[in-house]
Design brief:
single chain; mainly alpha; elongated
């Protein structure tokens, strides 16, 4: 990208340029404050308030109205800071990336101290790919600054909800359940005794049939014929 020296400065290409800009702004604010203190008739509503010093709740309220308070270092290709709506979208993209890390169980508790090189590089790449304004800097420092300013708040909120790295908890629960299942399967199975098995077979092998009166008479006649056969043989 071909930019003039002044354009590079307006883009805050390096973090050092942004830091110098902040210091200059603070110097101007201090000078204005001293000047205003000398004016006894100063109207309180006429004070020049530095919006970057407002509390977080007021910051969100201003962002909802399209006022960018904390991300003025994020500018377009002309060096104009993005509005509050765009800043909110960019923060949302960052939170989405962190949520993906949490779902995979690899989100760090502290961004700068515990983020691996792979996570940091992937984060910068995704942020610059989805948010064009973050490309106008060196070494992804603007994406890093968004994480520095917002990650701890996101992490605390997720921890309170019990959602931080929830994948790890589910995995540990599954491992515990698998161990219990393996322990149960290692116990000897309960076998039915041979005595009961024999009874079961005997019962299953015989089927009770209801006999009629005619069948009983036939049995009696057969018995009588068998008793008469020895007498016949003796008579012969």
């Amino acid at each position: 990208m071909d930019f003039t020296a002044e354009q590079w400065k307006q883009l805050f290409w390096t973090k050092a340029q942004w830091t110098a800009h902040i210091n200059d702004q603070k110097g101007v604010s201090v000078l204005k404050s001293l000047t205003n203190d000398l004016d006894d008739d100063m109207d309180m509503e006429g004070k020049d308030i530095d919006t970057e010093q407002k509390p977080g709740k007021q910051e969100r309220a201003c962002a909802a109205e399209g006022i960018n308070m904390k991300m003025k270092y994020v500018v377009n290709h002309d060096g104009v800071p993005v509005d509050g709506f765009c800043a909110t979208v960019i923060r949302g993209v960052a939170c989405g990336f962190w949520t993906e890390l949490s779902d995979q169980g690899v989100a760090p508790f502290k961004w700068k101290a515990e983020s691996s090189l792979l996570i940091t590089q992937n984060y910068r790449s995704q942020m610059e790919n989805l948010c064009e304004e973050l490309r106008f800097c060196e070494n992804g420092w603007k994406a890093d600054q968004i994480a520095i300013d917002n990650y701890s708040l996101w992490c605390n909120a997720w921890c309170k909800k019990g959602l931080f790295n929830v994948c790890v908890k589910l995995k540990d629960s599954k491992i515990k359940q698998d161990d219990e299942d393996d322990h149960c399967s290692s116990d000897e199975p309960i076998h039915t005794s041979k005595k009961h098995q024999g009874k079961g077979k005997a019962r299953s092998g015989h089927k009770k049939v209801k006999r009629s009166h005619h069948d009983h008479l036939s049995d009696v006649e057969d018995a009588d014929s068998i008793m008469e056969e020895p007498a016949t043989m003796l008579s012969t």
